Amino acid sequence: MAADDLTFGLYYDFRCLDPEPTALTERWQGILEQVSWAETLGYGSVWISEHHFLGDNYAASTLTLAAALAARTERMWVGTNVLVLPVHDPVRLAEEALTVDALSGGRLRLGMGLGYRAADYPPFGTSLAARRRRFEDHWRVLRTACRGEPLDGGDVHVSPRPVRDGGPELWIGALSAQAIERAARLADG
Q: At what angle do helices 131-146 and 177-186 cross, to 10 degrees?
């Protein structure tokens, strides 16, 4: 990477401790304005993390927020850091990701991970123990769908189709040796 390739990015969890809905709206609108301004300063990316059931308005709908950010920017990469893949339906996730990819003109980087909070899984019909298997199963479906390839070898395609050949970049957040190996084997970043 050359020195002129180096960019800075922003990271948001969209938390708002004030329980008033108007406070949440004001905070989130402020974040959108800040990101628009940061793009004019040359920032290269904005990232959104995901958690569920924390009670502090932590971002639970990252792709909805990514769509809002994509609509407010023209050049910045918009990414998830990280989306908890085992709690999502991979086909629905592909539809949402490809929608954000289209809105952004191909600037989506979909970063995913296993997650780690046991409380995140039961409301979605799964468990912490099943997360590794679900991650890899969901990854295969998501990768296929995001590339614009037919699901299950049939003739059903997710829409919209990807903006770029190969679809949006799929990244994996990893800390353990096993997770790093998984990222190296499967991910684009």
A: 20
